[in-house]
């Protein structure tokens, strides 16, 4: 950091109070740095609360950041059973809410406060002179509409991608009439609670699910359960690819039985005609009335599906608008930091080849500015919470001046099968019926070391010594799983394969 006393006494701004944002705050506090945290939602981790009905496939031992665990320990916090798989609601209630309530974090946390823009005080993006010595300026708006400017010594953007789902139309664009369909309430939010709080909305309706990832699969299975209980409930499923085999997975041959069971159950519903599958279907438009007409192209020509509701499951993308005055260096394809982008582009790499990474790889031309968490992966999939925890550990070390610790990235993730882009690219999937479930990640990892290859499906805590080389996909010893819900899948693969 600059030797300017005024700047050095400013807080580090953290945008977003989800799992990675709160972990960033805990890591900063442990390094003696003061955070100031801005959360757009009314509660900490409000996005997690919105998918509370979803069960993670990662057990608790991999869902808690190490610095956060140490911060919570003196409060009398009881860590949940390490082997139990939490739901989003349990993650929120038993970990994220207690963490946000720790006085050092609670005093720094501003909820219902949306960051509108990030810049440098007195300097727009074009000005270079004195830039590194100028504090960051964050313009925020609270629930009453009051706009305030805050100064910060550094910025960590952990705002995620939940609020910016991918469009349903082709070529990365909204289809004609898509905005009107959303406005009319005929397109739902991602990951609805089909058998719970949203049940009345879906019962007895014709519902179309669009997407080829695990969020689509789980929504389809929930609709299948609802259809057994509610006569007249009809289910359609549209994907852009020519086959759904990638979603079905390996069945009995799958090294992870719960994942195989999920795919097998979905295949059975389709084969029995309880789900009407439309392959090679690319949405080109919507016509809104009391119901929704979904127009698409197929190899046989134009086709129209008339439904009551549509559930989108095509992934997410980052919102970069608030960063227009920040000097970013982004990969042109996936919109991740340039050095990271080629390592996570799903067209060229499986998740098993993504290196653990920290401050160095996440840096931008704008000194002391970082994008972390799901947003750091841009449009690419396969992001894990453990990856985010190691990101912010490294960044906190760098901001504290401990470059050796910042560069010593030790996250080693054993291989556990393959990450297929046909699955929407996510290796973080909720469990089927509460059982552990993950996308497989085939491929043999190179010898692990700091900054070497990691897997998408499992993450031990940062190890002081390199672990043995990971085995090939279907025979990993003692597979470990770390995940976030499928509703957080994002990336070009998810959009492309929908």
TrEMBL record:
Q: Which keywords, in A-to-Z order, does the entry hold?
A: Oxidoreductase
- Is this entry keyworded Oxidoreductase? yes
User: Native species of this protein?
Assistant: Arthrobacter gengyunqii
Source species taxonomy: Bacteria, Bacillati, Actinomycetota, Actinomycetes, Micrococcales
The molecular function GO annotations come to:
flavin adenine dinucleotide binding; monooxygenase activity
Q: What is this protein called?
A: NAD(P)-binding domain-containing protein
The reply to whether Transmembrane helix figures as a keyword in the UniProt entry is no
Read off the Gene3D superfamilies from this record.
FAD/NAD(P)-binding domain
